[in-house]
Amino acid sequence: MLILEVLFYSFVTVVVIQVLYYAVLFGSFAFSKSDSKPVKSTPVSVIICAKNEAENIKNFLPTILEQDYPVFEIVLINDSSHDDTLDIFEDFKSRHDNIKIVNVKNIEAFWGNKKYALSLGIKAAKYDHLLFTDADCKPLSNKWITQMSANFSDQSTIVLGYGAYNKIKNSLLNKIIRFETLITATQYFSFAKIGIPYMGVGRNLAYHRDEFFKSNGFIKHMKIRSGDDDLFINEVANSKNTSISTTRESFTTSIPKMSLKDWFKQKRRHVSTAKHYKVKHQFLLALFYITQILFWTLGISLAITTYLWPFVAGLIIIRFITQYLSLGFSAKKLNELDTILLLPFLEITLIILQFSIFITNKISKPNYWK
């Protein structure tokens, strides 16, 4: 009985922590209003770094060129591609005078390092306000630049946007990918809302060039091949200089991985940077994940024993109601409501996959960039 009593009170503690995360921390984003900012006409440099992305560039670059914005340039960085990427760049440049090409060749010190290529592109940019996306990303509207740049101000020099993934019917993997994206976005938007921003995604991210030069670019983590987005934001973002853009016109969408193996490799690269976050961010993220695991393991264990089952059932219901409300409102904002229908299953699946990624990364280092 003593063991069951310890398990019960541990479960109570876990549920309280989980409810605080969903209701208070994530609720700061989920239950807030998405305010549209006044439209501005600040000149913007859109920066796209590509490595062997010829087909994606042909398909998605026109959506950037069609943006309804008065003054912007597109900086196309060819990161030592061995396909037709550079040729495609030059073809577009011959037809559009607001395109600038930065052709990066490998050097021994920075071989295969995206941060080196991005640094050259940032230095070559004509304007100080920089907007980043990937070669396979498509803005959801021709107001993408307008909506993202509207969040810049004298104080706000960093803008975190949402990078969604295309929806694929009848694909369980697609649901898992988009649910993970929803959870990640809810976390980094919420942390930014309460004044402790910790990351952004390179699929949709903007900042003033001064932030880059004040921190000496990526120099502090140049040897870490990944993290040109999240590690940089983790280093320079604070409660005063960071804003978020959650209007749907500001979203981008990307091509998701089509196999679990490819997605697993991609997430290995992403997860490998988390150990370099500030300690407070590592603690808060780890506490959420650990209490997620304990909620399921302790909850199932207590349910099997039927120990104080009315109280255990009540705690489970409270946690699920809070989770559904918080993630439901977030999903509505981010246009991911269909993932909520499978929430318990997707949560358990994601916990298992994340644990597998953590163990795999402990055994071997992931590969980076392309």
UniProtKB/TrEMBL annotation:
- GO MF term list: glycosyltransferase activity
Q: Which UniProt keywords apply?
A: Glycosyltransferase, Membrane, Transferase, Transmembrane, Transmembrane helix
Q: Which SUPFAM superfamilies match?
A: Nucleotide-diphospho-sugar transferases
Which domain of life does the protein's organism represent?
Bacteria
Locate the transmembrane regions by residue number.
Answer: 6-31, 283-302, 308-327, 339-359
**What are the residue boundaries of the Glycosyltransferase 2-like domain, all occurrences included?**
45-179
Q: Which InterPro entries match?
A: Glyco_trans_2-like, Nucleotide-diphossugar_trans
Pfam families registered for this protein in UniProt: Glycos_transf_2
Task: Please report which protein family the annotation says this sequence is part of.
Answer: Belongs to the glycosyltransferase 2 family.
What is this protein identified as?
A: Glycosyltransferase, catalytic subunit of cellulose synthase and poly-beta-1,6-N-acetylglucosamine synthase
**What is the organism field in this record?**
Olleya namhaensis
